[in-house]
UniProtKB/TrEMBL annotation, chains A, B:
Belongs to the NAD(P)H dehydrogenase (quinone) family. It catalyses: 1-(beta-D-ribofuranosyl)-1,4-dihydronicotinamide + a quinone + H(+) = beta-nicotinamide D-riboside + a quinol. Its EC number is 1.10.5.1. The gene is NQO2. This is Ribosyldihydronicotinamide dehydrogenase [quinone]. GO terms for cellular component: cytosol; nucleoplasm. It comes from Strigops habroptila. Its cofactor is Zn(2+); FAD. Homodimer. Residues 5-212 form the Flavodoxin-like fold domain. One of its GO terms (molecular function) is oxidoreductase activity, acting on other nitrogenous compounds as donors. It is found in: Cytoplasm.
Length: 230, 230
């Protein structure tokens, strides 16, 4: 594991939050292993989530009718993406593993992190038909979604009102990461940390550190509808 | 239908885009019916997608450790949310039907629209335990997700690589709208408008206008895992 590079994309407003602690634990444990760890602290960076014309430096390919996907793809080819995107793409390019750390907002990631996906994973950089899914351009990388929920584990069980938590991970794990060729490790989910005791929260942090110790030996999950919706 | 109020939340950068045309068709057809139509044109408004301390006017309930959900809920109670949120909440409150019009980005809505969900649907306004799902605070309202895809209909069929398109609608339709008590009409999906003929695109616009003519007679979909994952 020594020498491996890890990018943590982190979306919480408050350093003292439980998400902040989970992020800190990951930085500490992975650094201890000799990994080189980079953190994109999206709120602290005031990361721009909106996909706009500002992402392209200089002239547009077609200024008559703005097409974000086409323009960013063209801009990528000629090195004309905005500097914040180039910066994030460099971090992705170098990373062996990306950890996404966030509180679940509405069965998904917070908008600031969705904006990171929308803007950073440009066509030509992360995918380029037919190089998608297993042959996506970011193959040989790993991703792990680590998040906290408001609801309890029981509320996210199969047959309960929120449905199996796997259902909501489909767009993130299959639709984004697998599409780009990234192999996905099992998610790390801390259920309802706000509603458990301080001791339980400490146990959750310890469990995360423990998991990270043997993370590099884990096999990716099977990113198929059968795995998600069985 | 005359007198009904419709809010269209629209997320496309380019008025000349196919999404722009779909939005225009909806405004025209619904106005013709005598509905009162309001549009939140998110990119034109430069709508803020980031959930931050700026959403709370004045002092925080707990300035030691910022908790976005708790703070916005407290701010809502005392009328202390930022003016852009109050504005959007008024539009939601008045609406009988909300139409979300957007291009699918990464199996989901663009970040700017996810930010609308994250920030506008505040606890106390849209939901308040145990008032969620069928007893959510926005019950008696309807929602409809109208979106365009890059991939073809075949690519989003059950058993194909993208999986049944229903799978990716689960977080939006069940996790957000149903959670707030909103009844969900069948989505309106225009597959791959970019890759079909001008004539086919016109047909798509006509089909949308046609559907809107009898929209008020439609029954909501069954927002259950059985419907989504059958």
């Amino acid at each position: 594991m020594a020498g491996r590079k890890v990018l943590i994309v982190y979306a919480h407003q408050e350093p003292k939050s439980f998400n902040g602690s989970l992020k800190r634990v990951a930085v500490e444990e992975l650094s201890k292993q000799g990994c080189s760890v980079t953190v994109s602290d999206l709120y602290a960076m005031q990361f721009e989530p909106r996909a706009t014309r500002n992402d392209i430096v200089g002239c547009l390919h077609n200024s008559e009718e703005f097409d974000y996907g086409m323009e960013t793809s063209e801009a990528y080819k000629r090195g004309g993406l905005s500097s914040d995107l180039i910066e994030e793409q460099k971090k992705v390019q170098e990373a062996d593993l990306m950890i996404f750390q966030f509180p679940l907002y509405w069965f998904s990631m917070p908008a600031i992190m969705k904006g990171w996906m929308d803007r950073v994973l440009v066509q030509g950089f992360a995918h380029e038909f037919p190089n998608c899914y297993d042959s996506g351009l970011l193959k040989n990388k790993l991703a792990l979604f680590s998040f906290t929920t408001g609801g309890s584990k029981e509320m996210y069980a199969k047959g309960s009102i929120n449905g199996d938590i796997r259902y909501l991970m489909w767009p993130m794990q299959h639709g984004i990461m697998h599409f780009c060729g990234v192999k996905v490790l099992a998610p790390h989910i801390c259920f309802a940390p706000k509603y458990v005791s301080e001791e339980k929260r400490k146990d959750m942090l310890i469990a995360w550190a423990q998991r990270l110790k043997t993370l590099w030996k884990e096999e990716p999950i099977n990113c198929s509808p059968e795995w998600y919706f069985k």
